[in-house]
Design brief:
This protein is α/β, with parallel strands linked by helices and about 400 residues long. The protein contains six helices and 29 strands. Helix content is about 15%, strand content about 30%. α1 packs across α6, α3 packs parallel to α6 and α4 crosses α5. About 45% of the residues are buried. Pathway: Cofactor biosynthesis; molybdopterin biosynthesis. Its cofactor is Mg(2+).
Length: about 400
């Protein structure tokens, strides 16, 4: 097996770039779907306005369209959804918000600032126009949104407003989860040498928030028996259904760590194999001959989430055709130590004073700190996070849908 990261751990930023590039190269072809079915997917083509927005002069208020000097004789009505005849000099046409402005209109008088006496309208129109001209928001042919951004309800609304019935999108990659480890139990408290599986219940939720579609029946599946044959069989089965298979545990080379031999048996190549990051460095992404991916997450719970945010998030973004998810910044309220030659991803919480503080209970096997965290502060190799320093932040996705 060949690929980035064979041998010594590679730099964290290099690993992020490598998996994103691999995902982008393997992104599925676009499909065209009804706009209502596109929520959460990714624009595969720029959204270009099919018309001027608005397409015709549109009243911004309820009132009267006027021409000439007042008072004006009322001469009809125009409602939203109807066309209007040109307005005659010295007349008023009652008009509704959103209605087409009659040709020849000089002013629109707001209804609350008008007086109607029999069929005579009087009042003082405001000096600024009370209607929207064609193209106020966009002109036909304008690029409204670039390819590669998530489709949100607002994007769907914009597409509908300018005339789209369908959109070219990339579907969410389908993801499966395989849990490795005979030492795991899936119900009840830990004991008798067994620990409770804390990754199987949570990883599907993270995958969904990162933009993947966890497959029923594989979210999760396991624990898989600690044999090479069982590992190979489980991976083959999952890869028949999923574009991305995440595994937990077995990323080292111990006596019951069968992930590496299983990947070799399947003809996979490493995209990344071990990363110079703490916690979580024994992480990997491998690609199968058919273009599908396996992401090996460490068995320690917090290390596994570091691997998700380091490798799986940019991989999923690439499979969507999106850019690498942006990082924010935080100002540290307390010092955060470095980890020598490794990037340190340190759990932090942003408090009411706007500063980010490192959390206790943040060792590789712990989840208590993670449950209160806003994300990981990034301390570069060879560096220290001093109090008051501004450092990058890898935010944890708290809600459904990948970050743009």
């Amino acid at each position: 097996m060949t690929g980035v990261g064979d041998g010594s751990p590679i730099a964290w930023d290099e690993a992020v770039a490598a998996v994103h590039a691999a995902g982008r190269a393997a992104a599925a072809p676009p499909v065209r779907l009804p706009i209502a079915d596109c929520d959460g997917l990714t624009l595969a083509e720029p959204l270009v306005s099919l018309t001027d927005l608005p397409a015709f002069p549109t009243s911004s208020v309820d009132g009267y369209a006027l021409r000439g000097a007042g008072p004006w004789r009322l001469n009809g009505r125009v409602l939203a959804g109807h066309t209007a005849e040109p307005i005659a000099d010295g007349t008023a046409i009652e008009i509704a918000t959103g209605a087409m402005v009659p040709a020849g209109t000089e002013h629109i008088l707001r209804v609350e600032e008008s007086t109607l006496d029999d069929d005579l309208v009087s009042g003082t129109p405001r000096s600024l126009p009370e209607w929207r001209e064609p193209g106020d928001e966009a002109h036909k042919g304008d690029e409204l949104l670039p390819a590669g951004i998530p489709v949100t309800p607002a994007v769907i609304g914009l597409a509908a407003a300018c005339g789209y019935d369908t959109l070219a999108v990339r579907r969410a990659p389908r993801a499966a989860l395989l849990v490795f480890g005979d030492e795991l139990r899936t119900a009840g408290p830990p004991g008798d040498g067994q620990v409770r599986d804390a990754l199987g219940p949570q990883v599907p939720g993270w995958l969904r928030r990162l933009g993947a579609e966890p497959l029923p029946g594989f979210a999760p599946r396991g624990p898989i028996e600690d044999t090479l044959e069982a590992h190979v069989g489980a991976l083959k089965d999952a890869l028949e259904h999923a574009d991305l298979v995440c595994t937990t545990g077995g990323t080292m080379h111990g006596p019951v760590d069968h992930l590496h031999p299983a990947l070799a048996a399947l003809g996979a190549r490493y995209v990344v194999n071990t990363v110079a990051v703490r916690p979580g460095f024994p992480m990997l992404v491998a690609q199968l001959p058919d273009g599908k991916f396996v992401a090996g997450l460490p068995g320690n719970p917090q290390s596994a989430i570091v691997a998700l945010m380091s490798l799986v998030e940019p991989l999923i973004a690439g499979l969507h055709g999106r850019a690498v998810p942006p990082r924010g910044t935080v100002t540290l309220g307390e010092p955060v130590p470095g980890r020598g030659g490794y990037t340190h991803l340190a759990l932090v919480r942003v408090e009411a004073d706007g500063l980010a503080y490192p959390l206790r209970h943040s060792a590789s096997a712990m989840l208590r700190g993670l449950a209160r965290s806003d994300g990981f502060a990034v301390i570069v190799p060879g560096g220290q996070g001093d109090a008051g320093a501004v450092v990058p932040l890898v935010p944890l996705p708290m809600f459904f849908g990948a970050r743009p």
